[in-house]
Design goal:
The protein has 131 residues and is mostly helical. The chain folds into 2 domains: 60 residues, Winged helix-like DNA-binding domain superfamily/Winged helix DNA-binding domain (Arc Repressor Mutant, subunit A, Orthogonal Bundle), CATH 1.10.10; 55 residues, no CATH class. 61% of the residues lie in helices and 9% in strands. Strands 1-2 form a two-stranded antiparallel ribbon. A hairpin with a 2-residue loop joins β1 and β2. α2 crosses α3. The termini are far apart.
């Protein structure tokens, strides 16, 4: 198993669906993952994809008796930050501010007062660190 997680998540759609299931369940067997997938492929296909995720360094395997259980190596929060960082580096390499503005522009209607307060705090903190 690789010791270092890939910088770019680069997961196929089905791999991301499997990771989403593992994040939700925390730990699951191949059958449990398959049960939660939309339009699930065969058991052996899910087992193969989970094996690929293990080789890529996204999941770890724990053996309990004859059953194997899989769990994410990193937290969902860490994984989401890594994915967001990758998107920012790809589409907004010179301007993280433009990336943040694009996110806010597209979802401004959905932001709660708490969200806006958190954003204001983050901006204030960034200003203080920049001085």
């Amino acid at each position: 198993m690789p010791s270092k997680k890939p910088a770019n998540r680069g997961l196929a759609t089905r791999e991301q669906q499997i990771m989403d299931v593992l994040f939700k369940l925390g730990k699951a067997s191949v059958a449990e993952v398959r049960e939660k997938l939309p339009n699930p492929p065969s058991y052996s296909s899910v087992r193969t994809m989970i094996g690929q995720l293990e080789r890529k360094g996204f999941v770890r395997r724990d053996r309990s008796g004859v059953k194997h259980y899989y769990s994410p190596i990193e937290s969902k929060r860490s994984a989401s930050r890594s994915a967001l960082r990758s998107v920012m580096e790809t589409f907004f390499p010179q301007s993280p501010g433009d990336a943040l503005a694009a996110l806010i522009d597209d979802s401004a209607k959905k932001l709660s007062e708490e969200d806006l307060d958190r954003l204001e705090q983050a901006i204030s903190k960034a200003r203080k660190q920049g001085k």
